[in-house]
Amino acid sequence: MENVVDARGLNHWFGSGEVKKQALFDVNLTLKRGSFTVLMGPSGSGKTTVLTLIGCLRGVQDGSVRLLGQELNGATEAHLVALRRRLGFIFQAHNLHESLTATQNVMMGVQVLGSVPDATAKQAAIHALGLVGLSDRTDYLPANLSGGQKQRVAVARALVGNPALVLADEPTAALDKDSAADVVDLLKRMGSARGTTTLLVTHDNRILDRADRILTLEDGRIVKVEDRT
Questions:
Q1: From the CB of residue 27, how many other CB atoms can be counted at a distance below 10 Å?
Q2: How far apart are CA 229 and CA 223, in angstroms?
Q3: Is the pLDDT of residue 106 over 70?
Q4: pTM of the model
Q5: Residue 137 lies in a domain
Q6: Cβ(62)–Cβ(213) under 8 Å?
Q7: What is the mean pLDDT of residues 182-208?
Q8: Taking the mean position of all CA atoms in its chain, how far away is CA 219?
Q9: What is the CA radius of gyration of the chain?
Q10: Does 49 map to a domain?
Q11: Which range marks the domain in which residue 65 is found?
């Protein structure tokens, strides 16, 4: 399967009646296995809406989205949940549990996959933290980590289940230049090593040189596609 995501004629609306407003207009996009794609655009352009539709976080209203070879339009909630477990999510807010260590936070990324023994989940979490350069921070609480380290824990949590697709919404916005580069380089390495596909929504011009492809969204329409491979 070459395309991890294949979206065609995607339209989406919010509200109903007189306040109903169209947010996406005939959006078409494909994500190839192992690719690193950046989705850019001003606030309110529909970037997060695209991300949540692909990520099975809201239902497809009109058009087709094929994710990992399976159609999302008309899919049941149980089917969407099952597909969601095969994805990794990273957000601007790291969303770590403050009372849990780095290892325990990452273990949650394994445990959502189903019945996984704690020892297995812990081993996988420690390995993932090593991949993101935090082998010496496995037992630290989030309060004792820097902003860049917290986001790397979030990246480890997203990658620990070896997802086919990682969806990242502004993951570098709150980071300094070096930390932002570290996060993106980690995702790129996983694409090369594991075939992990990444779609990253951002306003961050500092990371564009690392993208394989840049899509620009304006007023709910993709207005520019730039291939860099």
A1: 23
A2: 19
A3: yes
A4: 0.90
A5: no
A6: no
A7: 86
A8: 22
A9: 18
A10: yes
A11: 1-86+163-171+198-229
Rounded to the nearest 10°, the torsion over CA 30, 31, 36, 42 is 40
pLDDT in tens, 140-177: 999 999 988 998 899 899 989 889 999 999 888 877 88
Does pLDDT of 200 surpass 90? yes
Three-class SS of residue 51?
A: helix
Mean pLDDT of 191-212: 87
Number of separate domains in the chain: 1
Question: Residue 162 in contact with residue 138, Cβ under 8 Å?
Answer: no
Indicate the length of the chain as a whole number: 229
Residues in CB range of 226: below 8 A, 6 or more apart: 213, 214, 215, 216
Strand 3-14 and strand 87-91: pairing? Answer: unpaired
Q: What is the rounded distance in angstroms from the CA atom of residue 107 to the CA atom of residue 122?
A: 6
Residue 177 lies in a domain: no
According to DSSP, residue 30 is labeled E
How does the average pLDDT of the chain come out, rounded? 90
Q: Burial of 174 by CB count in 10 Å (0-12 exposed, 13-18 middle, 19+ buried)?
A: middle
Burial 86-100 (b: 16+ CB within 10 A, else e): bbbbbbbebebeeee
Per-residue tokens: 174: 């709150």
Say yes or no to pLDDT of 83 above 90.
yes
Q: Which amino acid is at 192?
A: S
CATH of the domain at 17: 3.40.50.300
Residue 35 within any structural domain of the chain: yes
